[in-house]
Amino acid sequence: MTQDAPGPGASLLARRMALAPRSLAVRVIAFSTVWAILALVVIYTVIATLYRETSERGFDSLLSAHLFNLIGSVGVSPSGVLTGGPDLGDLRFSERESGWYWAVQPVSEGLTGALSSLSMTAAIPSPDAADVPFSAGFQRNYITEGIRGEELEVFESEFVLDSQNRVARFRVMGNRSELEDDIGIFDRRLLTYLSVFGIGMIAINAIAILLGLRPLGQVSRALALVREGTAQRLAGRFPAEIEPLANETNALIENNRRIVERSRTQVGNLAHSLKTPLAVLLNEARALGGERGRLITDQAAAMQSQLEHYLQRARIAAQRDSVVYRTPVAPLLQRMVRVMEKLNDGTKIAFSTPAAEVVFAGEREDLEEIVGNLLENAMKWARSSVSVSLRQVTGADEERQFAIVIEDDGPGIPDDKAREVLKRGRRLDETKPGTGLGLSIVSDLVNEYGGKIALERGAQGGLKATVVLRSIQ
């Protein structure tokens, strides 16, 4: 049965999720910022549009009112001459080339004389009626160019002045460029105010989101304390939304601790239950004697050794990911170096450690066994000096680690034999006392703690052993 390949929609979704920021705060702030910008753009567009429509409607109403006022202010004399002194109540019609003009022109035969505002110093042509037709009420409006090149809006009407049906054309012209300038000023001010408001709103929103997510950071720090072994549970007051998560996490930690303790108890019970039968086998084998007795003795001893070895591995595996121990490294190394110096007067030990405290994420006994076996091996083969150094290193994914480097000036080991000496019971030189288990024990312990061990030729010509383990500080 074959499995269908993911469709293009699923792959597109996967790519989008990969491109999305991993930080929850960044995602929420980015989403709220985009939403705020879109909302402000819509608000700006709506307000600017409403203001323009209102301004244009008011502008047209003003021109229409001036037009009717102008029509009511002009008459015709018995001789057929246009008369009247219109006062539209706006000083701009008196200012020279202000962009606000009015004009009255005769249309019918027998009607003479033309009137215009003081501001109108030159004739402003009117489009042909075929291009801009009049409405049913004999009115029309259009846009044209003014005396100074400004944009004018013209309201125009033809009106019968007397019983002889003599018709005159009335025009009122307003400076539309001023209107556009006013609308532009309003739009810029509106944009400035909304931008300041938007920046403040986004900043306040970001602060609120960060403050709202701070309890998650508190949970993270509490979990780090549990992982480092300085706390047994998540402690502190959490918001109502996060408190159930903290309670469930505490319950999970407690349940995990019970499982580990039960497993360790069962392992201990297994060890005790097997030790007595193995001891009986060893005693009976020794009493039996002969070739068969020695065979049984050797096999029972091997079983006993393997039992101790794998019980120790099970203990470390059970505690490594569940219960974290704290072992300061530098004091332990100093104590072991002093002991080795007293036991080996002819060998000098150089010791160096960083100023910052280094804490091993494991049990003190295990670290003592690792360092003790490496130091014992170095002292065994060194001619005159051994160096021990401790330094902090950074592992994959920024994991905090530390390295213990033990180097001697002995004969060293060939590079192709480095892996052989880490195997249980393997010895390269049978003339030296030992069982060949020291380095293999070190290798097993380091591997169980997820660390690394490297054996190579050092600068002094001897063996250089480097052990890298995880630290919690």
Can you tell me about this structure?
The chain is α+β, with helices and mostly antiparallel strands and 473 residues long. The chain folds into three domains: 209 residues, no CATH class; 78 residues; 144 residues, 2-Layer Sandwich (Heat Shock Protein 90). 50% of the residues lie in helices and 17% in strands. The protein has eight helices and 14 strands. A five-stranded antiparallel beta sheet has the order 4-3-7-6-5. A five-stranded mixed beta sheet has the order 9-11-12-14-13.
Low-confidence stretches: 424-436
- Backbone CA Rg: 49 Å
* Overall mean pLDDT: 82
Count of individual helical segments: 8
What is the number of strand segments? 14
Work out the strand percent: 15-25%
- Class computed from helices, strands and strand pairing: alpha+beta
Q: What is the straight-line distance between the termini? A: 51 Å
Number of structural units classed as domains: 3
Helix content: 40-55%
Lateral strand order in the biggest sheet: 4-3-7-6-5
Largest sheet: 5 strands, antiparallel
Gross morphology is rod-shaped
**H/E order of the elements?**
HHEEEEEEEHHHEHEEHEEHEE
